[in-house]
Design brief:
Oligomer: heterodimer
Radius of gyration of chain B: 20 Å
Helix content of chain B: over 70%
Order of helices and strands of chain B: HHHHHHH
Largest sheet of chain B: none
Structural class of chain B: mainly alpha
Distance between the termini of chain A: 59 Å
Largest interface: A-B, 30 and 25 residues
Mean pLDDT of chain A: 84
Low-confidence stretches of chain A: none
Radius of gyration of chain A: 23 Å
Mean pLDDT of chain B: 83
Number of helices of chain A: 14
Strand content of chain A: under 5%
Strand content of chain B: under 5%
Amino acid sequence: VNDFLAQHAEILITLVKIAILLFVVLTVNAYLTWFERKVVAHIQSRWGPHRVGPHGLLQPLADGLKFLFKEDPTPAGADKFVYYLAPLLALALALTSIAVIPFGPNPIHFKGHDIYLGITDLNIGILALFAITALGVYGVALAGWSSNSKYPLLGGLRSSAQMVSYELALTMSVVGVLLMAGKFSLRDIIDGQATAQGLFGLSGIFRWNIFAGPFPQILGFLCFFVAAVAETNRVPFDLPEAESELVAGFHTEYASFKFAMFFIAEYTSMITVSCLCSILFFGGWLSPFPSSWTLTTYLPSLLLIPFGLWVIWDGMRYETIFGKLILPAVGIVFTALGAAFLLFPAVNAFIQGPFWLLSKIFVFLFVYVWMRGTLPRFRYDQLMAFGWKLLLPVSLANVVLTASAILWSSPR
Amino acid sequence: MNAPLLIFFVLAAMAVIGALSLIIQRHPIHSALSLIVVMIALAGLYLLMGAEFVAAVQIIVYGGAIMVLFVFVIMLLNAGVEERTNLSKLAGWAGVPLAVALTGFLAAAVARSQDAVQAATQYGAPAPTKALANLLFQDFVYPFELTSFLILVAILGAIVLAQRETR
């Protein structure tokens, strides 16, 4: 057994990493639905889910069970093979795209192996991601077509047109970052931002691509984010599933777990987009503070300990017995984590990168939910005009300006 | 059998089966899906030979953009199952010997170029994208730009033709 382990260590480590990442991503997905419902509810002066478990925290579990036990009808005249293939394709592609995202700078040393956070680091990382996104359209288009029903067909057509249109702007808006980094690997793009020429010669946050010289990528970021929201079919670009016109768009005829697969795919792509925004434009795992500031390394503890204590305090006065037991336990875990980071400097140094990356990802996920709570939906012609007449020219201009700035500032 | 050879045969089988299925399937969408499988298998073969950039672009452009347009048009026209006519039966009878002859020619050509076949079934060192960029934008910049100009003209021509019909 030991020989086998030693010979296939790389493959085994990768398999374990895939299993862990899959578990984490699916759990985060589940709690993202809870988070979204809570935040949107509070935006609209409601409470949101609060019946299942304390603060509705077990709602995702209940939803998952409900999806599993619902009846799963196949519409008459549906193209069976494609009908079953579509949700599988959507989910598989969405989950695959997470594989190229690096989550931290330093490897864990384990029995002579350097285990990096993130499944793989490709030389063509960002291109591989775009390749996967490019195939993602099929999940939606085929679902719409194979259902043999008018609303899904219209939704599928709309969404393929939308995704093809916005993919162009999405790819173009990244070119500026690629020009500045000179690499396709996401890890190299982040490392490049650590030593970039900062705005006004400042370091920290001013070295991130969105501010850094020779040409700050603010335009590129805006184009990228708008196009990415459109790619993920979220508000204000959720026309494929505009319920007032198309019932539920491409997934109208899907029920039970097949519907859940589309749902999980959508939330996973939200996570991927948030990761990409943070990595490409906001420095990935780099701290926003200059590296000479040492006190800021205690921020994870400073956030976790008060939050944990607040959860304990909130749990003590919760109405139900269950809440009185669960919430303090969760709070103790958070407080203990924060305390552990304070006590073990090595651990604290290791989690700095992941902490900043996850914080940025969280901010972008919040923006997603925030937009859902506030913005109305685009009309179809507005959507097309916006994509082709504004987003594409602006992202092209960004490419030209960035290239000129780099040429201008580079030594001859 | 070593790993690269095994991967090569798996991908090659995917490509061949996909191509056969493309012809045999009677519904346009199924044919388009088979073509996507062929494209992805080809991308895998490029990757095996170390052409990372070409592999990624193969999926983005052919697997993604072009095939999405195929699927989109088929969906838009709501094209149904193709019908078998007398002529298509005739094409089937004539096509089989032709296909056999073509396969024979190709097999003969492949058998003669042993080195290329050997190279295709082994891992290639990853070619740096920079080298490709240098070739495209320095050594072959005029042919490259002329080709893109040609494509632009073709697109404009298509638009002009489509506009004329509606008027």
